[in-house]
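Intended use. Records like the one below are meant for learning the mapping from a protein sequence to its folded structure. Do not use them to infer anything beyond what is encoded.
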Amino acid sequence: MSTENGGPATLRKLGRVERKAVNLGGGEAAVRTGEVRPGETLPLVVTPRNGGMSLNAWAAANLEWIEGKLLEHGAVLFRGWDVGGLDGFREFVTSTGGSPEKYTYRSTPRTEVGNGIYTSTEYPADKFIPMHNEHSYSRSWPLRLFFFGEQPSPEGGMTPIADSARVYAEIPAEIREKFERKRVMYVRNYGEGVDLPWEEVFGTSNRAEVESFCAAEGIEVEWKEGGRLRTRQVCQAIARHPATGRTLWFNQAHLFHVSSLEAEVAEALVEAFGDDGVPRNTFYGDGEPIEPEALAAIRAAYDRVESAFPWEKDDVVMIDNMAVAHARTPFRGERKIRAAMTQPVHADDLVQP
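Structure written out for the chain above:
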């Protein structure tokens, strides 16, 4: 992927920001909207006409406008505002998205820095995190994501994004149709010392609480010797957006699949534990292995539609988590990107494609 190292190919894609003025609130809340490159509407860039403008003061007076732009574009980048630090970011999240949700049934390590605000995924800096919609490996997920550039890394560390409807359209029809028909099975094994322990994933060391959560979410539980746990869950591959009705590619089949690991690591894990014993893996919903060429086509579709931008200090990004997927490029130096999730959605509440 061209953005993997934040190199010249990605930077050439950025182009210049094309801006136009939008006068709201008699001039007090005047902003400029723009694009990360000509003709690219994702994300919409919103900057204040006057320097030093408070993002929270402006947002409080323009919630309907923000809602409309997020629905239209799927992601909005607020740049050049007085955010007010982490407390100001939390205020913005609450006023525009509602109360932050706890990060439960997690797939990656994160640390809560206070009141529903988390570190971004704590994954090795030299590794690329593939495209994904947050929590699309489950049947419950946040509709909104927020990111705050408290301290961008000096090199790399971008957050590429991709339109989920465009990804769906880019995947060959025969692959889409098979996934839609069979859905995706996620198999996770905890306790081998090579992934998150189940106590961290479920936020409890009480087996009864784990079983209760899994029963409510349709997750099959299998306790194994030595305190190990295996879970299986069949989830959606395709989803329909509750507001726009657009059909979306909405799963993490390619990310959870063992082939997402470096080849030597994947081979060693399969040899040691078998296909259904590795820390995490995906199959079609009936247990059939997913073809390597299907996974390659999915990854290529994300590559073709992604858009990337370099972080600037105090950037705030607001994302419709169903409409837009996100990733992370490798980086060097200290990087503090904070994250929050709001507006929980359950698959059972949606109109199925």
